[in-house]
Amino acid sequence: MSAMNTVRVIASLLYPDVMSLDITGPLQVFASANVERQRQGLMPAYSVCLLADRPGPVMTSSGIQIVADQSWRDTPVEQLDTLLIPGGAGVEAQCGHIELLDWLRKGQPLLRRLGSVCSGALVLAEAGLLNGRRATTHWADLDALQRHAFIEVEGDRLHTYDPTGQNGYADIFTSAGVTAGIDLALALVEADLGRPMALSVARRLVMFLRRPGGQAQFSTCLSPEPSRTPRLAALLDWIPGHLSEDLSIERLAERINMTPRTLSRAFLRELGVTPGRYIEQVRLEVARALLHDAQASISTVARLCGFGHPENLRRTFQKHLSVSPQAHSARFGEPTRGLQHA
């Protein structure tokens, strides 16, 4: 049977106190791909199943029960194409589930793809399957993942899947929290069935077109509100309106009558980043918003946001989002605007 006619079995682990969205979100992507293929007169590409300690209902952390199709103990791993390990409040117990970890270690070479959603990465880490690899997880669980010394933890990305192996992995991969699992599933569908199908599924689910795996997990504007000194609070309120100006640490410190060293310490203490990194994040966030709303050309956006030359803007986009400003504008902005350099 050819690869195009093979129904790939996509399985997800199910356990008590799992995050229900970590399971249903990604699996819905594969189910929706089947619907899109049916609309095109094609056979289904996927079959989804849920594996637990034993068949039957399992209570998730939301209080909703999800029914497992079969026990992972009785499942021939070679019959699965892709296995996803979700996260949730019950993940700690799974990290100590010796029999499950041993099943994963033995089964991984027989799987085409093994991935995790959210804190499910901790299970893969405990099994030793992420050793020597880059990995990510929900931002709240990064510290726990970093306790595994042989893993290169990358907090500023959505997932580590890359079928080319150039910016991630095709066989074992991880993703950040909840909705990042949907981005991961869309990337898997794109690798299997092509970009047009992945975009059709994204539209069907009323999502933005698939976000690159290297994109940061959350924006500056969504960062937690820190408890900070009034002078620092006033500075942070002032910065977004003056992005085109000189925002060096010396200039910022002078504005609020602090020494550069004291200001740097305040940023690290209250925001967890250096002043330079924070300014870069805000400039990038505003640039993304301007390109998304097609409010200005790329050259104008670079100037207004303090990047100066469009090449500096391009480098920052590639560094943090793994896309060019042109690609971001084409993907998220109005189709007829935002792409010109003039």
From TrEMBL:
Q: Name one Pfam family in it.
A: HTH_18
Q: Does the keyword Transmembrane apply?
A: no
Q: Which UniProt keywords apply?
A: DNA-binding, Transcription, Transcription regulation
- What InterPro entries does the record tag this protein with? Class_I_gatase-like (IPR029062), DJ-1/PfpI (IPR002818), Homeodomain-like_sf (IPR009057), HTH_AraC (IPR018060), HTH_AraC-typ_CS (IPR018062), INH-QAR (IPR052158)
Give start and end of each HTH araC/xylS-type domain: 233-331
Q: What is this protein called?
A: AraC family transcriptional regulator
Which species is the source of this protein?
Answer: Pseudomonas asuensis
